[in-house]
Each structure stands twice: as structure tokens, then as C-alpha cells.
Amino acid sequence: MASKWTAQDGRTYPVDVRQHEDRLNSGTGTGLGAWLAHRAKPYTPPWIVTGAVGVAGAGASQMWADSAPAGVGLTLASVALTAAAWWAGKATGPQRRLHSAITVAAGSSWFTSAALAGPLTGPLPDLYLMGGATVALSWNIRQLMRTADGETSGESSSDKSLLEKVGLARTRLKDVKVEPNRVTVPYELPAGELTHEDAAKAIPRIASALDVPTTAIRHQEDPESARKGAFVIVPEDQLKTPTVWPGPFAPGQSVAVPLRVGVYDDGSDLVLPLLDAIHILIMGMTGSGKTEGALDVLLELFSRKDVVVWLADAAKAGQDFQPLLPAVDWAALDTPSAGAMVAAVQAVIPARTAWLRDHGYRSWEPAAAERQSDPAHSCAASGACGCPGMPYLVAWMEEAAKLLRDLGDDTFTGIAQEARSAGVSLVISMQRASGYQLSTDTRASLPAAMCFGVRGDDATFALPDEVLSAGANPAAWANKRKGYVYLVSAGVDEDLYANPARTFWTGPAGQYERMAGWVVDTFAGIRAEIDPVTGAAAARVAGDRFTNRRTLAGTPAAAPEPKSASSESASFAEVQESARHVAALVDPEDADADASADLPPVGVNVGIPQGKPSTEEARELLDELVSMLASVGPGTVAVRDVKPYLEKLGRDRSWVSKELKRLATEGRLAPTAEEGTYRLVPTLAGV
Question: Where is this region: Disordered (predicted)?
């Protein structure tokens, strides 16, 4: 892990990868002799050196026998060589240093004696045979023990030095795995000294040592060990060049098939399993490519056969989605319409859940979107009921920060907590999902996240701590790497959570419109329409805002017909006509009202009586207040919502709390997962 290494294909890796291949068949011989020669080859160097010392000693005897000056010189040379071996071994371990020094001292001493007295004089032949063999065997044993201990060629001193520098001293590296543009370096931490947290904290220092970006290194823990894991290094960023949207991943198939929305940095597909993700938070700063990612998801959804999309974009009035609006079942492009959509989603959840329950589904599945011809999924007492199917519903809240400011930070809490089994997915897209904008309960109920580039530590609002510890760092991109994203979702391999990816590029100006128009037209015949159960529940709550939703969005009230090649997508001029369509639906008495002005206090329009009302009058007034809150709020009511009107009611908070419980007991309100908060049922919440 200390020096660069170039593979045969010319790709350079920032690690020194030592590959030891079996070259048995690369030799010139075959059979048992060739095999023995191959196996013995690594152990021959000590014996070759021993033989070379003997030959050199015999030759030196012919030159320097009985020479006093030569004796002095050879003695000094022996001492110098021994000292040099000791000094050179400073960077190695103590055992290797001592072994090397002893070997050099023994060899140089015998060589000096043989040169001065002759190699066959006295005990020199015996010392050479026994001592030389002993020294050579000691090095063979050392090499054998090192191999048996699992080290292919010993851990290099440079590797040890690097590990010490990055704070991972005594960490052992295992067999390195090399793949195209990917190096996996398994490690084993010293027992009781370091933890996975220490390994994760070392990523910036490792990146500095290898001269690669921090996002090029990921940390993977072994779930079955507190000491073992791996560093994954991707030396070349393959995401620099954006990948143009290649077309639908599963055209005409079910939404149960994952959605392909981009590529990972190793070239594999970035897929979003929507039915596993359930609810998704899409977060990223301005210019990070968040809208591009949204377009990729929507293009996939509009090519499937059993999904309906409701889109709310009160901040930009659908500016980024104009060519796709003909495929959207309901587009709410202003705050009142978006508020009605939120209330409608809350209302359809119990209706859809009841339908699924009555037809024998524990949760939504593709079969629920088909006409119910299976007796096992029938609401009738005998045989198949033949009821129309119920497609999957995606409620997409684009630039949700404005909606949350207008309706409250807990607007989506009930939806996120209750829609899991109703075949409803909530998608919230915003720049910064802080606690000031999105309630912690709602954020905790969004199990999946697509996090694009952010500022500072904003990633903590979208990504789990363990993903950030593993090397995920969207702040390193900010808005300089458009489309770069991390995806965290059930159904996605956890090892991929910290892998950077990039969503598809929909192309330069004009190309996106052509792509969107092609998807809208090509799959118009197979796209699902809203089912009667969901439609009826939404109509009871949202009224004309739902029943006239196609006209309000500038699209025909009937199902859109395929367009000709000359009009591949809806033009901006057609969408701009939507303002006049909306004006035509406004009551004459509201013609001069400013739609952008703040709504007046509820009490102004409910005829609050003077003085302290009687109990019956207070109850009637509370009913009117709750009904009015349904038309302007998120579809839920709590004591805190009625607090501004306690003085007019002539009652305190405890009375209001008891009355809300009474309304819930009578079935006029429905309790939610949040204590003291109730969902407005359609009979009470008609708009």
C-alpha cells in the first residue's frame, strides 16, 4: 500500500500489489523433477551464497596467504560489513536485524581465516560445512515460518511505515484483491488496540498518503468480526463524464422491478428498489443535480404499468417537470393545491388499506394492480369479485421546504408513518432536511435517502452515521460535481451505501424535452389510471382540486392521447395557459382575491359569537374550526391548532382535548401515531 503498481493492461493503482502466481507450467521441464525444482527455488539463495563464500575464500587464499597486511585489511572489512548489516537492519524487525548481523559476521570471519590460512587448514573445512549449512538452513526456516504464517512475501517496511503514519500500527494486511478500477485491501486490527472506528478515521490520512481523493477510499467492516474489515480503493473516477439516460430499464413492467437511475463509480448500475425503499428523502444543495436525479426516477416511473404519480411543486410551479406533466395523474402547482394533495394522501391511506385488507393483501403487491380474478384475493363471499385493481401511488413533494413552511414541519409525519402497507410511497425533495424544516419524526420515517452534494455537515440529515464513517462525504462535492449521489435504501447492498454514484444526464437543452415526450407518448397506453377507491377518497377531501386536476395542470381532463412526432412534448405555451384555466374555475365572488396573499385567520369566517358561548355553541364553533382547518392545513388537527381561538371558545386546552377525543370516539376524527393529533376524515373534512 506504499507505492504505485501498474497492471498489464496499463492501469495504475495507488498500491503495491504483489501477485504470486503458480508458474509450475512456465518452466522448461515437466514431471516430478520440474515440480521439485519449482518448489525448491525460493529456498536456494542462502545455499548459493554459502557456496559463493567457499569459492571466494579458496580464491582469496591464493592471493593473500601468510600476508600480514591482508590480514589486517580483511579483519577490518569483516568488522565493517557486520556493522553495516546491523545499521541497514534498523528499519526491519529486531529478529531480522540480529539474524542478518550474525550471518554476515560468521561468513566474513570464515572468509578472512580461509584467505589467510587456507580453506582446508585445521577446523576450517568442518566449520564451513557445518556452519554454512546451519546458517543457510536458518534462513530457510525463517522463510518457511513466514509463509506458513500467511505472509506471501513478508510485509514490506514501507507498508509498515505507512500504517504507522496513518495511525494503524501493528495492523496486518491480508491478500489484496485486484479488479478493474477497484482494489480491495483486507486488514486485521491488533487485538485490543484498535477498532473499526479507528480504521474509518484513518481514511483521510490514507488518501493523503496514496494521493487520491478521500471519496476514492471506502471502509467496509466485517459484520462477524470487530477486528477484520477491508479498505476499498477506486483509483480512477469513472463518473467524471456523465452518462446520458439510456432509456427505460424495465419498460412496461411493474414498479416492483427496481428503477435504474444512474451508475456507481465502478460502472455498475445504480438502482432504486422503490417497494423496499417505501419513502425517500432526496436532498442536495442548489446546483448539485437533485433535479436531474428526480427526472431519472420519474422517467422510470412513467414507463411502468402499475404506478400513479401525484406531484406537488408549489415552489417552482412545475417549472422543471413541464414536459412530464401529461403523464402525472395530479399536478399541484400552488400552495392551496399542494395542501389539498397532502390532505388527500392522508385520506386515501385508510381507504387503500381497507381495500387491500378486504382483498387478502397484507401489503401492496403487483397482483393488487390487476383486476381481481383470483378467488384468493376477493372481497366477495364466494368466487372472484372482479374488482378493478389498485395501482401503486407515489406522492412526490418537490422543493418541499416551502410546503413545510406553509403547512407545518410535521405535515408529512402521519403519511410517512401510516402509508407503508397502503401501497403509497412518499418522496420528499428539498435542499436541507434540517430539524427546523422537517420534523425529526418525519425524517425518522423516511428509510431511504438520495444525498447529492451538500454543505458542511448537512449530510447528517440524510445519511446514517455508519455510512459517513465508512467514507461517504457529499460535502466534498458540494455543487461542483452535478449528479453525484449516495443512495441508502433497503434492498441495496450495504457495502454500496458509501460508494459514490452519478445519476443519468438527460442531455443539453432540447434533448430532455424530446426524451420526456417520447416516454409520455410511448407508454400512454399502458400507464395506470387512478383506481376508484383512491379517486373517491381524494375527491371527498380535495373536491374540485382533484376532480378537475387535469384541467388545472393544463392537460386534458380525459386520458391523454399519443402525440404526433411534430409535438413530442407539451410546450411551455400550453402550460402557461394553466393560469387562465385556474381563473375559469374560481367562484365569481373570489375573482378579485389575491391568491398569493396570506389566508385570513380562521375565526374571521366562522362567525364567532360574542361573549362566552354555551357548551353547545362551543361545540358547534369547534366543529366549524376543525372543518376550516381541514381546508387550509395539512389534514390533521391538534389542541395546539385551536390554541389561538381558546378565548373565543371560552374554554381551556383540557376541554378542547376532551372534545377532540369525543369526536374521535364518534368516528368523526381518526387518531394518528402522534399523541393528541387526529386526522380529519372525509365526512368532516370536505373542502
Answer: 553-573, 592-612
* Residue 160 annotated as part of some ligand binding site: no
The reply to whether 285 sits in an annotated binding site is: yes
Residue 22 and residue 19: Cα distance in Å, rounded?
A: 10
Length of the chain: 687
Question: Smallest Cα–Cα separation from 626: which of 636, 615, 616?
Answer: 636
Domain ranges of the chain: 5-13+156-233, 30-148, 266-370+384-552, 603-680
State the virtual CA torsion across 114, 116, 122, 127 in degrees, nearest 10: -30
CB 300 within 8 A of CB 377: no
Place of cell 364553533: 621
The answer to whether the annotation marks 515 as part of a ligand binding site is: no
Beta bridge pairs of residue 262 = 270, 503
Q: Which three cell numbers stand for residue 277?
A: 425503499
pLDDT, one tens digit per residue, over 247-260 is 889 898 999 999 99
Buried b / exposed e across 82-108, counting CB within 10 Å, b at 16+?
A: beebbeebeeeeeeebebbbebbbbbb
Q: Cell 395557459, residue?
A: 577
In this prediction, residues 652-656 reach a mean pLDDT of 80
Q: Which helix (H) or strand (E) holds 443?
A: helix 440-444
* Cα 477 from Cα 483, distance rounded (Å): 10
Round to whole Å and give the CA distance between 412 and 291.
Answer: 21
| CB neighbours of residue 184 within 10 Å | 16
* 277 in Cβ contact with 489 (< 8 Å): yes
The annotation status of 147 as a binding-site residue, yes or no, is no
Q: How far is CA 22 from CA 19, 39, 145, 308, 406, in A?
A: 10, 10, 20, 58, 70
CATH class, domain 5-13+156-233, is alpha beta
Question: Does residue 291 have a known ligand-binding role?
Answer: yes
Which CATH code of 3.20.20.70, 1.10.238.10, 1.10.10.10, 2.40.110.10 fits the domain covering 603-680? Answer: 1.10.10.10
The residue type of 92 is T
Q: Is 488 exposed, middle or buried (0-12, 13-18, 19+ CB in 10 A)?
A: buried
549-607 pLDDT, tens digit each:
876 554 433 333 433 333 333 332 333 333 333 334 434 334 333 333 333 333 333 33
Task: Give the integer Cα–Cα distance in Å for 89 and 101.
Answer: 8
Residue 563, marked binder: no
pLDDT greater than 70 at residue 18? no
Phi first, then psi: what are they for 249, rounded to 5°? Answer: -80, -40
341, 395 Cβ separation under 8 angstroms? yes
- Nearest CA to 371 among 356, 349, 357, 389? 389
Non-local (6+) Cβ contacts of 388 within 8 A are 371, 372, 531, 532
Q: Domain spanning 266-370+384-552: which superfamily?
A: P-loop containing nucleotide triphosphate hydrolases (3.40.50.300)
H or E element in which residue 183 lies = strand 182-188
Question: Which is nearest to 469 in space by CA: 166, 171, 167, 197?
Answer: 197
